């Protein structure tokens, strides 16, 4: 540090648009929340090898279909962003609509899955594994619902050609929800 | 166009108004927290007597009092005033921008915080009373309502804390994005005032440490409401898991509220000693090191909680190592005074008191940090005295210092120095009278959170110290009266402050007092570091950050 | 401050007291030194007419060494404190000497239950002696305890023995102590455990070997009485 | 919040459909390795596949590979914290004494 005046540096900020930077900070916070939850589950799961028995009652087929649905929705979401950067707003709105429907499909499948499991006697109180199952998938489903609301808002604005940068922001969020599911799926459905 | 009353004072998106909203809400909560402390201190000094202004204190009421005192002081006083209040007020002003990056998010953040405060206050009025599980909320005590008899108070506590975290996360995102992207031209990271460094370090620490606890709070809420067993051993859960999650957050949280307080000190010291801060980079790096270390020390709160005893030693070593970066900080502050020209303004007195008291808080931390000594000291009044000597000074004393220092930027007027001096003297005397005896009580083995020290024979001959401490705490509360008078009187009738009453160098002092909408009349450009006081090549003993080359010596004040 | 400590009656208590003394001396010296320097600087460099402050930015190593060298010393002292504390921790928490007597301590809201072995010296046999509020142990003998909790977290706290250990439901935590002086000492709960936390106390009765033997024998009828 | 597109923060686009194809193949692979007899080996393989999938989504769909160091550091710090918790808690929760 000097007391003398110094020339201005050419550039001081990161070059990341403010909105996108804010979203990344938000996603980092989300990462730690879901990460903390997953860590708790993993630790207790390692302590209780007998949970494998319960985990066998989750359906890897339904879970797999849902993973496919989410992966595809991520594809349509990123395509919508691409369309925005190419100036094809109407195509972007259409792709956002497809993403929205895929998100809804995920939730519908999830509801059927829950119904089936609860009828089978596997409620949230059945065992700690199921408590974790409902907490983790439930929290994830809440994020999907939040994402659907956000996508709807962005779509309405984008139709009028406004706030197009938000397509990217909501996309970043949506991909993170996808990434969380990519980990939840093996944790709850596959690993024995 | 003049904004409507609602837009200007209630649903404001202006960072200065939001800062005032945070501070006033925090001060109101501080009064509540102080009142709770008064009630249980009287109970401790004269057990069983009816407390004037409250009534008799039952045992569960006592537990609720200490729980809510801790919760309120950490989450509803320290965080909103120091982090959110000073952060909102100072970040845009100090980095030379017109507002936060996301003004509307900022407003949402305050309103979320206000709702959380109301929920917390409401928990006193629900059947069963407020939460009585200790501010650390350890399960299984907190995981089942029947263990304490508190049902709704506990639910509301978790909800309120969760909302408060959400609010502070939004605020943190705002702070970090603003500082990264909206600094004035020329304001590189190493020209930032140290207060900004402290605020963003605190925000980063909060953001990365709170996640696991939020996950834990979801689990705990389900345990309480639905009856799951995430933390109940009979269901396969583990009570220690929550303690780990809590303290993984809890230790960085200490620095979240400590660092902004130290930031106030680093701003006030150079101004009032007319001398550049000693070791700017050393302070920045030691803050970063302390922040990093704070993520790997959490188990020192759990030495005797049943954790694997082999873990204690590594955690004890990392804990004790933390004394090094803080020693660097304190020594740099003390070295700043060397060969200065010290003016004893009220703000300066408080800043010096922060250093003096923090020294005692810091060295007593070594006793707790040593795993072996902690076997004896854990959960005694020694710990209580220790963390009040670190946090009371960082939160309350630094807050007062900050308010006296930046009052012109909040209300355009100066606070009264005479009343300030009285406030300072009484606060320091009674603060030490309250907490010094508690070190002795801790040595005696007086454990925490008991409503009646007379139930244990070996504590009987130390009861006089409890009385002394209570007298101190009552005096400490009364000592705030001059401040309240000063605050409201100066707000309306204080001496008009010019732009730069302290002849300070950082950017907030080139704005009008109080700054108008948009803060700066013309966007500032920064040419130098933040603390150029008494430069050797000038007659003037201060040189603002925005003064271009060739104009040195043309500073005018105020 | 050490004179405020309750009388030490355990075999490892004097190690704990010396550790506390060592830490207090080290940090006390530093605390006083730092405060004296602070106050001295405030007095010497108060504002005086015609005198202006110097320009000392502390940006080079030569100036910074005034701050960094003391910190290196502090680092060394920190490690010394750790080195002094590690054996004490090891003795109290990381070792389990062969016991002369094993007892089970069970915390519950809001009392301590103690299970002593009967004449056979074994726990979980028919002649176990149960007692609420009173733990009986012989003097100068290694007593191993097993801590369990029936409901919430408690903390087994014996100030005169310099011993504290949380009691966690779902875990069984072992520890030990050896009392060097006969007498009756308080036991308290040091972790907030609910409404009755304040009153959750018990007594440790330290008897001579002979007294303890007689006590064990005299308890059998009571135990049968309990069984009914 | 009134940024427009076309500033220096924009990224090149990759072939997203190809990435999606890889992701689906990995999904099938992940399910398949779940049926490996050895539970330890199975778990390692399953989570390796999941990590690769997540890496692809984050770097390409979320364009993290085009972001400056700061943004990558933010995410890495978050992950680092999660790992600290995981490592720090293993001795207690997984191998806790007598629980």
From N to C, what is the helix and strand string of chain A? Answer: HHHHHH
Extended strand count of chain D: 0
Low-confidence stretches of chain D: 1-9
Distance between the termini of chain A: 59 Å
Quick one: CATH superfamily of chain A? Cytochrome c oxidase, subunit III, four-helix bundle
Mean pLDDT across the residues of chain A is: 90
CATH class of chain A: Mainly Alpha
Strand percentage of chain D: under 5%
Main beta-sheet annotation of chain D: none
Question: What overall geometry of chain A do the principal axes of the alpha carbons give?
Answer: elongated
How helical, in percent, are the residues of chain A?
Answer: over 70%
| Structural domains of chain A: how many | 1
Radius of gyration of chain D: 19 Å
Annotate the secondary structure layout.
The complex is a heterotetramer of chains A (about 190), B (about 550), C (about 230) and D (about 100).
Chain B lengths: L4 H6 L4 H31 L13 H37 L7 H20 L29 H30 L12 H32 L13 H35 L6 H14 L15 H13 L1 H15 L8 H24 L1 H7 L3 H31 L5 H28 L18 H16 L2 H13 L65
Helix pairs in contact in B: 2-3, 2-4, 2-15, 3-5, 3-6, 3-7, 3-13, 4-5, 5-6, 6-7, 6-8, 7-11, 7-13, 8-10, 10-11, 11-13, 11-14, 13-14, 14-15, 14-16
Chain C lengths: L12 H32 L16 H34 L6 E8 L2 E6 L12 E4 L1 E5 L3 E8 L4 E5 L4 E5 L5 E6 L4 E7 L11 E7 L1 H10 L1 H8 L1
Parallel strand pairs in C: 1-5, 4-10
Antiparallel strand pairs in C: 1-2, 2-3, 5-8, 6-7, 6-9, 9-10
Helix pairs in contact in C: 1-2
Chain D lengths: L15 H18 L5 H23 L7 H26 L5
Helix pairs in contact in D: 1-2
Short description:
Chain A is mainly α.
């Amino acid at each position: 540090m000097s007391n003398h005046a110094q020339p201005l540096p050419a550039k001081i900020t990161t070059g990341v648009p403010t909105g996108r930077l804010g979203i990344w900070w938000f996603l980092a916070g989300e990462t730690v929340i879901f990460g903390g939850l997953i860590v708790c589950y993993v630790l207790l799961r390692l302590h209780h090898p007998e949970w494998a028995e319960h985990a066998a009652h989750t359906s890897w087929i339904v879970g797999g279909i849902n993973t496919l649905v989410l992966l595809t929705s991520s594809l349509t979401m990123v395509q919508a962003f691409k369309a925005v950067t190419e100036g094809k707003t109407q195509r972007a709105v259409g792709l956002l609509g497809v993403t929205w429907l895929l998100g809804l499909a995920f939730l519908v499948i999830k509801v059927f899955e829950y119904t089936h499991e609860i009828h089978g006697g596997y409620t949230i109180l059945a065992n700690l594994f199921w408590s974790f199952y409902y907490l983790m998938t439930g929290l994830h489903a809440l994020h999907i619902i939040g994402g659907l609301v956000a996508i709807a808002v962005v779509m309405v604005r984008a139709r009028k050609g406004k706030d197009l940068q938000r397509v990217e922001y909501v996309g970043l969020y949506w991909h993170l929800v996808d990434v969380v599911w990519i980990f939840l799926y093996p944790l709850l459905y596959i690993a024995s | 166009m003049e904004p409507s009353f609602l837009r200007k004072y209630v649903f404001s998106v202006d960072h200065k108004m939001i800062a005032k909203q945070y501070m006033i809400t925090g001060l109101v909560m501080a009064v509540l927290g102080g009142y709770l402390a008064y009630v249980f201190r009287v109970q401790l000094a004269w057990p069983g007597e009816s407390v004037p202004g409250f009534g008799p204190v039952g045992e569960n009421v006592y537990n609720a009092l200490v729980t809510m005192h801790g919760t309120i002081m950490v989450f509803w006083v320290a965080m909103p005033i120091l982090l959110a209040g000073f952060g909102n007020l100072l970040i845009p002003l100090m980095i030379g921008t017109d507002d936060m990056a996301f003004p509307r998010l900022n407003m949402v953040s305050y309103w979320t915080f206000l709702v959380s405060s109301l929920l917390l206050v409401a928990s006193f009025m629900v059947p069963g009373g407020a939460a009585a599980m200790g501010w650390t909320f350890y399960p299984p005590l907190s995981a089942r309502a029947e263990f304490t008899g508190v049902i709704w108070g506990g639910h509301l506590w978790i909800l309120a804390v969760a909302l408060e975290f959400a609010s502070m996360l939004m605020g943190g995102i705002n702070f970090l994005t603003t500082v990264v992207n909206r600094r004035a031209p020329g304001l590189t990271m190493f020209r930032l005032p140290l207060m900004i460094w402290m605020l963003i370090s605190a925000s980063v620490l909060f953001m990365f440490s709170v996640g696991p606890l939020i996950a834990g709070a979801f689990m705990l809420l389900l345990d309480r409401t639905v009856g799951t067993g995430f933390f109940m051993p009979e269901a396969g859960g583990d009570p220690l898991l929550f303690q780990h999650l809590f303290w993984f957050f809890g230790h960085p949280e200490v620095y979240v509220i400590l660092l902004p307080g130290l930031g106030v000190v680093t701003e006030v010291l150079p101004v009032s000693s007319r001398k550049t801060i000693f070791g700017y980079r050393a302070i920045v790096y030691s803050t970063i090191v302390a922040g990093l270390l704070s993520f790997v020390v959490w188990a020192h709160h759990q030495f005797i909680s049943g954790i694997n005893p082999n873990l204690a030693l590594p955690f004890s070593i990392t804990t004790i190592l933390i004394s090094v970066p803080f020693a660097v900080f304190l020594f740099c502050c003390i070295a700043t005074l060397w060969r200065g020209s010290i003016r004893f303004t009220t703000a300066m007195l408080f800043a010096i008191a922060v250093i003096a008291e923090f020294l005692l808080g810091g060295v007593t931390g070594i006793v707790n940090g040593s795993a072996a000594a902690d076997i004896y000291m854990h959960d005694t009044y020694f710990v209580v005295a220790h963390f009040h000597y670190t946090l009371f000074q960082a939160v309350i004393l630094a807050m007062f210092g900050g308010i006296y220092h930046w009052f012109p930027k909040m209300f355009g007027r100066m606070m009264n120095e005479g009343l300030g001096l009285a406030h300072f003297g009484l606060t320091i005397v009674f603060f030490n009278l309250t907490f010094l005896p508690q070190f002795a009580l801790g040595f005696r083995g007086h454990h925490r959170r008991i409503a009646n020290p007379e139930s244990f024979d070996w504590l009987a001959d130390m009861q006089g110290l409890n009385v002394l401490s209570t007298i101190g705490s009552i005096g400490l509360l009364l000592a705030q009266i001059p401040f309240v008078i000063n605050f409201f009187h100066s707000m309306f009738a204080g001496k008009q402050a010019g732009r730069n009453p302290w002849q300070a160098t950082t950017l907030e002092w080139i704005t009008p007092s109080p700054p108008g909408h948009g803060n700066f009349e013309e966007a500032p450009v920064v040419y130098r570091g933040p603390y150029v006081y008494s430069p050797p090549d000038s007659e003037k003993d201060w040189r603002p950050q925005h003064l271009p080359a060739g104009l040195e010596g043309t500073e005018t004040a105020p | 401050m050490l004179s405020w400590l309750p009388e030490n009656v355990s075999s490892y208590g004097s190690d704990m007291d010396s550790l506390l003394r060592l830490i207090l001396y080290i940090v006390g010296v530093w605390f006083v030194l730092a405060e004296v320097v602070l106050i001295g600087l405030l007095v010497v460099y108060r504002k005086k007419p015609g005198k202006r402050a110097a320009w000392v930015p502390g940006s080079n190593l030569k100036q910074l060494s005034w701050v960094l060298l003391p910190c290196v010393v502090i680092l060394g002292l920190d490690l010394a404190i750790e080195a002094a504390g590690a054996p004490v921790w090891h003795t109290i928490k990381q070792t389990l000497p062969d016991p002369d007597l094993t007892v089970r301590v069970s915390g519950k809201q809001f009392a301590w239950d103690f299970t002593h072995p009967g004449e056979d010296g074994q726990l979980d046999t028919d002649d176990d002696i149960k007692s609420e509020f009173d733990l009986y142990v012989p003097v100068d003998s290694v007593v191993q305890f097993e801590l369990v909790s029936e409901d919430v977290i408690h903390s087994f706290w014996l100030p005169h023995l310099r011993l504290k250990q949380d009691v966690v439901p779902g875990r069984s935590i072992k520890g030990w102590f050896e009392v060097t002086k006969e007498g009756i000492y308080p036991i308290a709960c040091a972790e907030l455990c609910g409404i009755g936390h304040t009153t959750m106390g018990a007594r440790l009765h330290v008897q001579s070997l002979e007294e303890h033997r007689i006590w064990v024998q005299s308890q059998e009828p009571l135990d049968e009485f309990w069984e009914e | 919040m009134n940024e427009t597109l076309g500033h220096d923060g924009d990224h090149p686009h990759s072939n997203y459909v190809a990435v999606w194809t890889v992701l689906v193949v990995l999904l099938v692979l992940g399910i398949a390795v779940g049926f490996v007899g050895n539970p330890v080996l199975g778990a390692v393989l399953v989570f390796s596949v999941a990590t690769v999938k997540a890496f692809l989504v984050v770097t390409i769909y979320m364009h993290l590979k085009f972001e400056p160091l700061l943004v990558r550091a933010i995410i890495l710090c978050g992950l680092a914290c999660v790992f600290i918790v995981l490592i720090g808690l293993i001795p207690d929760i997984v191998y806790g004494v007598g629980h």
